[in-house]
Amino acid sequence: MTSLLIHASLGLLTVILFFFFNAYLYKPNWKGAGVSAIEAVYYLLAIGSVCIGWYFNIKYVFAYPAEAGWIHYTKMLFTNPAAGSGAQDLLTANVFLFPLWTIIDGPRRGMKQTWLYFVISLFTSFGFAMGLYLAAQERQVRWLKSGK
Asked: Are 119 and 26 in contact (CB under 8 A)?
């Protein structure tokens, strides 16, 4: 249970840092400051991902209280070939491709502190971090078009 509280606290901290570093995108005084339809979809999918992921994480911690941890969790991802196939895809995308994408592409678009999305994914969920990145990217495009 302690590990869940620590992860939740670190997840909340990383999301607070996200809004701190991107505060300029969330101020109301620029053309395009409202939430677009696609941005809303990104937020909804991100929130759905973190809620469903945390539901299963809580179930995991209560099912394996003595073994619960990163190593055991990762081993559990590969308990059968079907799970292993999905797990390797998720791990490759989250651990390698997502950080490369956000850290390289984000600054090209003028986004700030894009390393943070990978850290967010470690404490919330990959889907949440990716949804947040895409929503911020959508806002950044509108910000640049507004001439601010």
From this structure: no
Sequence length of the chain is 148
Per-residue pLDDT averaged across 85-101, rounded?
95
Nearest of 19, 16, 20, 38 to residue 135 by alpha carbon: 38
Has residue 2 got a pLDDT over 90? no
Whether residue 134 is predicted with pLDDT greater than 90 in this model: the reply is yes
Q: Is the dihedral of CA 117, 118, 120, 124 positive or negative?
A: positive
Q: What is the DSSP letter of 133?
A: H
DSSP conformation letters of 47-100: HHHHHHHHHHHHHHHHHSTTT-SHHHHHHHTTSSHHHHHHHHHHHIIIIIIHHH
Kindly give, in sequence order, each residue whose CB lies less than 8 Å from that of residue 122, ignoring residues fewer than 6 positions away.
10
Domain that holds residue 44: 2-146
Reported as a pLDDT band with limits 50, 70 and 90, residue 70 is confident
Residues 6 or more apart in contact with residue 93 via CB below 8 angstroms:
126
Average predicted confidence (pLDDT) for the chain: 93
As for how many domains the chain has, the answer is 1
pLDDT at residue 72 tops 90: yes
